[in-house]
Amino acid sequence: MSESSLAEMLRARGLRLTAQRQLILQAVLDLGHATPEQVHTAVREVAAGVNITTIYRTLELLERLGLVTHTHLSHGSPTYHTAGEDQHVHLVCRGCGKIDEIDPALLRPLAEQLASQRGFRVDIGHVSFFGVCQQCEDGDRK
Fold first, then answer.
1. Beta carbons of 80 and 33 less than 8 angstroms apart
2. What's the CA gap between 99 and 73, in Å, rounded?
3. What gap in Å lies between CA 8 and CA 63, rounded to an integer?
4. CA 16 to chain centre
5. In which order are the strands placed within the sheet that holds 89-93?
6. N or C: which end of the chain has fewer CB within 10 A?
7. Residues of 70-85 as b/e, b for ≥16 C-beta within 10 angstroms?
């Protein structure tokens, strides 16, 4: 998203584009998948005075604006990524913490079955599988 379109979106809601908001959105874009703490670390490299409370509030605002979304990839903080990305399913390695993505089409048959049999609609964009990646699996075998 361009700086001008972000500024217009904020102005339409009676808000202004601050350097901190811009830095936080850029950090999410650059990091791909990031917790608020990781965003804070990245932002502090550029603007040391930004506190963690500002990070959380801004991420909540950016989510309300539809610019970022979050998912829970562990028991800790939520993980944010840009909302403009295609929906994807997260694969989280319990060994190294690596986050990978797969096409949600792999889960559509299951989602359709749950909808027809249980009346339950799965939000595929928030699905995460936890396990062990190939590298960690290979390392355990050595």
1. yes
2. 9
3. 16
4. 23
5. 99-102, 89-93, 128-131
6. C
7. bbebeeebbbbbebee
pTM to 2 decimal places: 0.70
For residue 55, give the 3-state DSSP assignment: helix
d(CA 49, CA 56): 15
In three-state form (DSSP H/G/I as H, E/B as E, the rest C), the secondary structure along 74-132 is CCCCCEEEECCCCCCEEEEECCCCCEEEECHHHCHHHHHHHHHHHCCCCCHHHCEEEEC
Sorting pLDDT into bands at 50, 70 and 90, what band is 123?
confident
β-strand 89-93 against 99-102: which pairing, if any?
antiparallel
Q: Taking residues 99-127, report their average pLDDT.
A: 88
CA distance 113 to 53: 42
Decide: 78 and 69 in contact? Cβ < 8 Å.
no
Asked if residues 31 and 42 have their Cβ atoms less than 8 Å apart, the reply is: yes
Q: Determine the straight-line distance between the first and last CA of the chain, rounded to whole angstroms.
A: 45
Q: What is the mean pLDDT of residues 9-14?
A: 84
Positive/negative CA dihedral, 12, 42, 60, 64: positive
